[in-house]
Amino acid sequence: MSKNAISIGIIIGNRDFFPDSLVEKARTEIIEVFAKLTIKPILLETTDTKLGGVETYKDSQKCADLFKKHSNELAGVLVLLPNFGDERGVADTLKLANLNVPVLIQAYPDELSKMNVVNRRDSWCGKISVCNNLYQYGIKYSLTSQHVSFPTEAVFQKDLKDFVAVCRVVKGLKNVRIGAVGARPGAFNTVRYSEKILQRNGITVTTVDLSEILGKANKLTKDDTSVKQHLEKINAYASKGKTPNEAMIQIAKLDVVLNDYVEEYALDATAIQCWTSLQQNFGCNVCTTMSIMSENMLPSACEVDVTGTLSMYAMQLASGSPSALVDWNNNYAEDPNKCVLFHCGNWAKSFLPDIEISNAPILGTSVGIENTYGALDGRTPAMPLTYGRISTDDPKGIIKAYIGEGELTDDPLKTFGNRAVAQIGNLQGLMNHVCRNGFEHHVVMNASKTGSILEEALGNYMGWELYNHKA
């Protein structure tokens, strides 16, 4: 089993007047499925309880003790119902373990040719009873896409993989550490957020003044080993294009210090001040460093957009692939369901097959184009799209979010920077929701179809106010 395999607890429900062979076979089947999907199972041995199932209160105590022993690694729990099961046994186990992790409820189907006393399961009915008890106990849970399904079926295995993704999102968000580098730009009230509301949800923000970062970077020289190493890394990552060597050195110095900061404070993501202090006081853009970090699954957002990078991190956890912070920027001709996504140039390389280090023409009009090298240029081709945004709503004292799915297209687009064309059903309705509910102009895109995973993780388990845009 891989060291990176996620650990999921398994409760096998049982009732004594159903055949023992059903529980015995279910245990073997689910272990094989977990091995196939590279998931680490945490479950009772067949010698701990009758066939490793959970039925009595003593069984619940044993299973809960096992889960508590592995509480640091357990990301979720699967409830397996090869027969009706004992709803109290399941509920008591979860209550005693007190893990506060996602729970998936599975139930086996009956076969028409095996409805006799020896083979009958009644799991269809038992699943309803288990869910009813968990609801009474206040324990949150997830359901499979079909009410009953065999673990060996593809439909259940997709459900299980999606559930593992939900577990990754929930576990990650409850422990995430975000670095806020510098103050938000004065003109960007849109990226204000509540650090206290985030902390109540397990999200820690660590701040550092931009002057500390720039001060350390200014002490470095082109001859320092660390600067040379980071310059090599940057050159291997993207073509320098027409970027002057002096600018490349500045970019490398900044890269050294920011990476040291991330390592020192054990950060999972960053939000960095850019517009316009970096250009005026250090003479380059930080986009290239942000792109490299995002590509390496350490998402980074510009303009100190802390909840923006939190959104990037959530989508990354859901999909297992990098995310990018973008602007809802332009209409696309007269098509009401297409728009242009844009940013100066900090998207992960996964979105930019023609990536090149360049400058930021818009920003250059105010700070001088020579001070904006480090922004990336590149067009995102057609790919799947999940988009969304997490935000703190300070007047309500809550975290809220919206998500949805669409497509990135190959429609013609002649402009600069990082750019893409998005096609989203009922885009006008979505924009109405964004504007009516005070969301930011920044949104996050991910090359996946993970809207249902995010809905379950953010809405059901994190308990955030969530809107899932349906085309």
UniProtKB/TrEMBL annotation:
Positions of the L-fucose isomerase C-terminal domain: 341-467
UniProt cross-references to InterPro entries, sorted A to Z: Fuc_isomerase_C, Fucose_isomerase_N/cen_sf
GO cellular component: cytoplasm
Keyword annotations: Carbohydrate metabolism, Isomerase
Biological processes per GO annotation: fucose metabolic process
One GO molecular-function entry: L-fucose isomerase activity
Matches recorded under PANTHER family: FUCOSE ISOMERASE (PTHR36120), L-FUCOSE ISOMERASE C-TERMINAL DOMAIN-CONTAINING PROTEIN (PTHR36120:SF1)
Name of the protein in its database record: Fucose isomerase
Organism: Polaribacter vadi
Species classification: Bacteria, Pseudomonadati, Bacteroidota, Flavobacteriia, Flavobacteriales
